[in-house]
UniProtKB/TrEMBL annotation:
Its EC number is 1.3.3.11. It is an enzyme of class 1 (oxidoreductase). Pathway: Cofactor biosynthesis; pyrroloquinoline quinone biosynthesis. InterPro entries: Haem_Oase-like_multi-hlx, PqqC, PqqC-like, Thiaminase-2/PQQC. It comes from Yoonia sediminilitoris. Keywords: Oxidoreductase, PQQ biosynthesis. It catalyses: 6-(2-amino-2-carboxyethyl)-7,8-dioxo-1,2,3,4,7,8-hexahydroquinoline-2,4-dicarboxylate + 3 O2 = pyrroloquinoline quinone + 2 H2O2 + 2 H2O + H(+). Ring cyclization and eight-electron oxidation of 3a-(2-amino-2-carboxyethyl)-4,5-dioxo-4,5,6,7,8,9-hexahydroquinoline-7,9-dicarboxylic-acid to PQQ. Belongs to the PqqC family. HAMAP family: PQQ_syn_PqqC. This is Pyrroloquinoline-quinone synthase. NCBIfam families: PQQ_syn_pqqC. The lineage of its organism: Bacteria, Pseudomonadati, Pseudomonadota, Alphaproteobacteria, Rhodobacterales. One of its GO terms (biological process) is pyrroloquinoline quinone biosynthetic process.
Length: 251
């Protein structure tokens, strides 16, 4: 039997309660101050790849949308990350974080040192949004329901535990506290309206689960490679390399 909108929304929120990556051990390590400088750098490098692909994912989505109103509503997501003449944009803010932790920002932007598992997971998300139904593509974005909480935790934890953390370096997360609720309000309303059969509701729920798996797998890769440094795969960033000038002896 098709769930009511309230029941279906509760089902989606339960997925986040059980599967969102705020529960991953790497985030607990990061937010508590337990990461070494190089572990923080590895996170910044790999998370940049995800950030840089979000507007590409959204552009792929928009290329399939025939409704001008939906395209207009979705367009701001690309601008939020790529920036405009008035708005620096999330990608530029993330590179400011790379500067703050002592990385060569050109190296970070090149994505050369990204872990293979990070690349595979993020690319799979872009393909999912490009190839699956519009309902599933929007539903996959609903991890934004749970993002403000983790951004707030991250700001608090990084400010308390790391010397690089300040308003400038953490500007990406501070900005998302106001951007994400706008995006999720539209996305959630759209999914609740369009998922009007049990089959569609099941598909949307599975899409959200897929996205939580994408986020979780990125942290699994980081934890495996850099919390246990002996398991860094060939071609991935090596600690102590590609640091900004003056950081050659940082560790």
């Amino acid at each position: 039997m098709t769930q009511t909108k309230a029941e279906f929304e509760a089902r989606l929120r339960q997925i986040g309660a059980e599967r969102y990556h705020d529960k991953h051990p790497f985030h607990h390590l990061l937010h508590s101050g337990g990461c070494t400088p190089d572990q923080v750098r590895a996170w910044v490098i790999n998370r940049y790849y995800y950030q840089s692909r979000i507007p590409m994912k959204d552009a792929a989505f928009m290329s399939r949308v025939e409704d001008p109103a939906l395209r207009r509503a979705w367009r701001s997501r690309i601008e939020d990350h790529d920036g405009t003449t008035e708005n620096e944009g999330g990608i530029a803010r993330w590179l400011r974080l790379a500067d703050a932790v002592g990385l060569d920002r050109d190296y970070v932007a090149s994505a050369e040192g990204v872990l293979p598992a990070t690349r595979f997971a993020v690319d799979a998300y872009v393909r999912f949004v490009r190839d699956e139904t519009l309902l599933e593509a929007v539903a996959a974005s609903l991890t934004e329901l749970f993002a403000p909480k983790i951004h707030a935790q991250r700001i608090e934890g990084l400010l308390a535990n790391y010397a690089f953390a300040d308003d400038s370096s953490l500007s990406y997360f501070k900005k998302r506290l106001t951007e994400a609720p706008k995006d999720v309000a539209f996305g959630l309303s759209s999914v609740l309206d369009r998922a009007d059969t049990l089959e569609k509701q099941d598909a949307a729920a599975k899409a959200l689960i897929f996205k939580t798996d994408v986020l979780w797998s990125q942290l699994d890769a980081l934890h495996s490679a850099y919390v246990d440094p002996a398991r860094i795969p060939p071609g991935a960033w090596q600690p102590g390399t590609y640091l900004a000038p003056g950081m050659a002896h940082a560790s």
